Amino acid sequence: QVQLVESGGGSVQAGGSLTLSCVVSGYYARMNCMGWFRQAPGKEREGVAAIYGRYGTTYYADSVKGRFTISQDNAKNTLYLQMNNLKPEDTAKFYCAAGAVLDGGRCYGGLFVPTSGVRLPYWGQGTQVTVSS
Are 39 and 26 in contact (CB under 8 A)? Predict the structure, then answer.
């Protein structure tokens, strides 16, 4: 059984920073695709960042490139999302997700292409990020 637990959310002013963490328990080594989604009230869920494979190939949504950094610490079974220069439009509930996929393209699809048919099966409960102007 795989469980994901996020932490690190909170309230910050625009321009501030937060680091989200996601601890993965159970079969961590098999999860070669991990990422972060977010969902704001009244909006659809969107992929934010993903990391794939042993070399840690990363992918980002255009809206967060240059501001967010995804990383993982395999010794701690933990996924991170460092968020800098936060904007009010980043306000959302953030979820981490994980799964095993065949290749980086499928990892990208699972995060950023809703029509790809790729679904990461394991999810956390979410952590709220609120950015005030």
Answer: no
